[in-house]
Amino acid sequence: MDLAIYLVASVAFGVLVTAHVALVVGLLMRRPRWRAPLALFVPPLAPYWGSDAGMRFRTLLWVGAVCVYAVARILAGFGG
What we know:
Layout (H helix, E strand, L loop, with lengths): L1 H27 L6 H7 L3 H8 L3 H24 L1
Helix pairs in contact: 1-2, 1-3, 1-4, 3-4
């Protein structure tokens, strides 16, 4: 069971990082461009501005990955 939780957490984190980079690149291609570097270092801004810019799939992927990762981390903490 622990292995499954750690695998889920690892995959969710990988998806989160990928979705975050995709959102930042998408923000870089849209105006105002200053949002991209700020969203890179303040992660919650990426889905907020991504949703505002019409990047719905990337935003939902980011939010979903954060939720799955958080639940997996919580469950991993109970196994400790």
